[in-house]
Amino acid sequence: MMKHAIKTPLWTFSGVILVLTFATYSIFKNRSNRDEYEGFILSPNVGDIYTIKTFQGNYTTYKVIKSTKDSVFVNQNQHETDKYSGLGRLRNKSTAEYDKKLISFSNQEIQRLYASDTLLSVQRSK
């Protein structure tokens, strides 16, 4: 008695194909965002919002108030969140939620904060 080989239907691999497609897209998008953020860090604009991971492991935002050739001046948000997902609410609050005290960073310090993953992202109004 001869047994016939059964072909595996192509649709059985659709899940793997979808996962690989999503992973490739995510990697590309993450790299694209990193390139965009690096450009924003090299040329900060007034109104940029920096997402910061604090030394305690919380998250907050800094708003760029002034930028000079070699320095960036920011106001720190008065609130922090313990989860990255809570940053959306901090970003959407009015400017009244930021301290009035200016904090200054040299451009090199900002670049070091970004390289060390303390400065996580930059949001720029279009």
In short:
Helices cover 34% and strands 23% of the residues. It has helices at 14-42, 87-91, 107-115; strands at residues 49-53, 59-67, 71-76, 103-106, 119-123.
Give the strand order of the largest sheet, numbering strands 1, 2, ... along the chain. 4-3-2-1-5
Number of helices: 3
* Uncertain ranges: none
Question: How much beta, percentage-wise?
Answer: 15-25%
Mean pLDDT: 84
**String of helices and strands:** HEEEHEHE
Share of residues in helices: 25-40%
What's the CATH class label of one domain?
Answer: Mainly Beta
* Total E-strand runs: 5
> Any idea what the CATH architecture of one domain is?
Roll
The rounded Rg comes to 22 Å
CATH topology of one domain: SH3 type barrels
Folded structure, characterized:
- This protein has helices at 14-42, 87-91, 107-115; strands spanning 49-53, 59-67, 71-76, 103-106, 119-123.
- With 126 residues, the protein is α+β, with helices and mostly antiparallel strands.
- It has a domain at 37-123: SH3 type barrels.
- A five-stranded antiparallel sheet has the order 4-3-2-1-5.
- The N and C termini lie far apart (72 Å).
Any key phrases for this structure?
alpha+beta; SH3 type barrels; single chain; five-stranded antiparallel beta sheet; 126 residues
Write the layout of secondary structure elements.
Blueprint: H1 14-42, E1 49-53, E2 59-67, E3 71-76, H2 87-91, E4 103-106, H3 107-115, E5 119-123
Antiparallel strand pairs: 1-2, 1-5, 2-3, 3-4
